[in-house]
Amino acid sequence: MAGAKDSLVVMEIMVVAAAALVVHTLAATTYHVGDTFGWQVPSGGYNYSNWAAQHTFVAGDSLVFDFTTGAHTAAQVVQNAYDNCNTANTISNQVNGPATFTLAAGTSYYICTLHCSQGQKLVVSVGSSAGTPSGSPAPRSSPGSGTFSPPPPPSSATPTRAVAAASLIFLSVFAAFFC
């Protein structure tokens, strides 16, 4: 009788552990735009489209624009304003760094209102859930921004967060029954 009770306790612990891993796996992620480069005027061939192409964004994730207050801004804009570096009608303009934006599903456009024409701008495509792949559209050149190369296509071999979570649940249940 004690053996069956012990097995039940082990199974309960495994289910709780699996649930905790799923919650952690599906939790929103915070991305620092440009990583160590930060949010500044691109130089030396650097561009933010390549940075965005290296990440898979989902609704609820956050973008942090690291910049010195007074030196740059981070403004969310519509596509036309992004394409033309129009700073007149921003959706949200944050002038104090670091600035954080929470992502919603769809395509989001960000510019520095002071240096957009020099290539300090970012576009990201955001999936609606952890199982929806996303990437970033090919960058657009604007006057004075230099030549941008398109980002590499997303790898089809990269597992999504949902696949990883399902694998963890399966392995946990398997271990609970057979270990």
UniProtKB/TrEMBL annotation:
Gene Ontology cellular component terms for the protein in this record: plasma membrane
Span of domain Phytocyanin: 29-128
Keyword annotations from UniProtKB, A to Z: Disulfide bond, Glycoprotein, Membrane, Transmembrane, Transmembrane helix
Membrane-spanning ranges: 7-27, 160-178
Stored InterPro entries: Cupredoxin, Phytocyanin-like, Phytocyanin_dom
Stretch list, region Disordered: 128-157
Lineage of the organism: Eukaryota, Viridiplantae, Streptophyta, Embryophyta, Tracheophyta
MF terms (GO), sorted A to Z: electron transfer activity
Organism: Coffea arabica
This protein's name: Umecyanin-like
Low complexity bias (residue ranges): 128-148
PROSITE patterns, A to Z: PHYTOCYANIN (PS51485)
Gene3D superfamilies: Cupredoxins - blue copper proteins
Record gene name: LOC113697313
Entry keyword Glycoprotein: yes
SUPFAM superfamilies the UniProt entry points to: Cupredoxins
